[in-house]
Amino acid sequence: MRYIVGIDIGGTNIVAGTVAEDGSELLGLVSQPTIAEQGADAVMQRIVKLARASMAQARGKEIAGVGIGSPGPLNTKTGIVLLTPNLGWTNFPLRDRLGQALGLPATLDNDANCAIFGEWWRGAARGSDYVVGFTIGTGIGGGIVLAGKIYRGVSDVAGEIGHMSIDSNGRRCKCGNDGCLEAYASGPAIAARAVEGIQTGADTSLPRYVKDDLSKITAQIVYEAAHDGDEYALEVVHDTAKFLGTGVANIVNIFNPEVVVICGGVTLAGEKLFAPLRGEVKRRAFKPAVDACRIVPGELTGTAGVYGAAAVFVQRTWGTV
Ligand SMILES: [Zn+2]
After folding, report:
1. What local confidence, expressed as pLDDT, does residue 317 receive?
2. What is the mean pLDDT of the chain?
3. Ligand 1 center to residue 314 CA distance, Å?
4. Cα gap 68→59, rounded to integer Å
5. How many A from CA of 165 to the centre of ligand 1?
6. What is the ipTM, given to two decimal places?
7. CA geometry: angle at 47 spanning 41 and 48, to 5°?
8. Secondary structure (3-state) at 290
9. pLDDT of res. 110
10. Where are the domains of the chain?
């Protein structure tokens, strides 16, 4: 059995693990904060160190290569990250730099593509030929896996489902567009909507969770207050479900998927989010598509990107996963 180091580079954390080529085993799972403000080279060195730490814990195994998942946009053929404002990379040859540093062949793909590919390979969407997934955190990423292959489009942009417009005159998104799903339902967007309501007089216990420092309100705190029975927090969660449900309904009508998998911190809201989300999709999308589709939380919490990055290497190098 050969093993692949899977690396998931996020804006907050870098995670690495050594994965068996059939996905049956994950060894040496290690993680460190990204600390992007230290600059591109420091981040690069941290990635190399983490990969080595993971391989050291998998001592004795045959390591065949390294699969990298990185924020994009990027070029999967040249292995170059075109632009990541959060990490300070511009036209950065990440795949070759990392491959050379580790002395291993390497592949590069988008981080969200990797996460959803991981969920298809070993997680909630296992065995399905029609999968679309959302990764919801600081931003909203997505991945489309059709017949066991990531659908990347002609220039590796496909799957940016966080940037579908759900309101053509809506909230400004970091990408420059107006009304993107991400501007409503990412973690920071959920917190921002909650704070806006408080500032316009909403009756809620939320400020007590942060000692009246509204800048400390996060999506997680909103879910916590909703679980504790705060009506306003519950309303924010329901609005989130409505926005996400609108996005999922678009996807369901366009792709007619068997599984829509939703990954990330937002799944902590549990059925308080998923029940109204499914209701919204049912209300909006075509019935035969809704009836055929499962909308489920991801199963590989914290490791989907590592599994997926390794699976991309396996598929690109040996043809099948
Ligand atoms: Zn956008």
Report:
1. 97
2. 96
3. 31
4. 20
5. 8
6. 0.99
7. 90
8. helix
9. 97
10. 2-118+302-318, 127-297
Q: How far is the CA of 84 from the centre of ligand 1 (A)?
A: 14
CA distance 292 to 287: 8
The fold of 127-297 is Nucleotidyltransferase; domain 5 (3.30.420)
Beta bridge partners of 2: 62
CA 139–ligand 1 middle distance (angstroms): 9
166 C-alpha to ligand 1 centroid (Å): 10
Architecture per CATH, domain 2-118+302-318, reads as: 2-Layer Sandwich (3.30)
Q: From the CA of 102, how far away is ligand 1's center (Å)?
A: 35
- Identical fold between 2-118+302-318 and 127-297: yes
| pLDDT value, residue 84 | 87
Q: Please write the tens of the pLDDT for every residue from 245-267.
A: 999 999 999 999 999 999 998 99
Please tell me the distance between residue 244's alpha carbon and the centre of ligand 1 in angstroms.
14
Does the bond joining 297 to the residue before it have cis omega, within 30 degrees of 0? no
Q: How far is the CA of 60 from the centre of ligand 1 (A)?
A: 45
pLDDT digits (tens, 9 = 90+) for 188-202: 999 999 999 999 999
**Is the pLDDT score of 222 beyond 80?**
yes
